[in-house]
Amino acid sequence: MGELINQWKKQAKNKQAQHKSFLKSIKKNKQAAKVSAKIHTQVFKEIDCLDCANCCTSIPPIVKPSDVKRIAKHLGLSIASFREKYLLVDEDGDTVINSSPCPFLETDNKCSIYAYRPNACRAYPHTGEYEFMDNLDLHAQNANYCPAVFQILERLSQQLK
Asked: Domain limits of the chain?
């Protein structure tokens, strides 16, 4: 596993309060979106999601009706069969994959339905240029699940000091 992933595992929980405080402080910082986009690109050149896949083993994604339709069709299942086999409604009322790790996660950390995966999986970890500022409330929590988010927050906090 990569050095950045090991660093993340050691530090993520201890930094959550610091990350929350930092994210609150940048809510109106117009520079943060541009800087975060550059850092996002840099971090994802250094971290390979296939080395980790912690999101797929820890966070059941929200599955929207359009996702259900697309994935069920790909799997050759009826929508009802797909729902029964793979989905549940969580405590927040969201429809999510019913198990962790995700049943579509393969042993090499690849997704067996990658081209058809839920939109929530496509967008995760919500740190791209157009998403970062809209998801500030999620980033401190996601830093506990994703080494890339952790690194983005660490570097962003250094650059915006």
From this structure: 3-56+125-159, 60-121
Closest to 18 in 3D by CA, of 134, 130, 139, 145: 139
- Cβ contact 58:144 at 8 Å: no
Selection from 95, 103, 100, 90 nearest residue 69 by Cα: 95
Half-sphere exposure of 122 (CA within 13 A, CB side): 10
d(CA 143, CA 140): 5
> Quick check: 63 and 55 in contact, CB under 8 A?
no
CB 118 within 8 A of CB 61: yes
Helix (H) or strand (E) holding 9: helix 3-25
Per-residue pLDDT tens over the stretch 65-85? 999 999 999 999 999 999 999
In sequence order, the 6+-apart residues with CB closer than 8 A to the CB of 97 are 60, 61, 63, 86, 87, 103, 104, 118
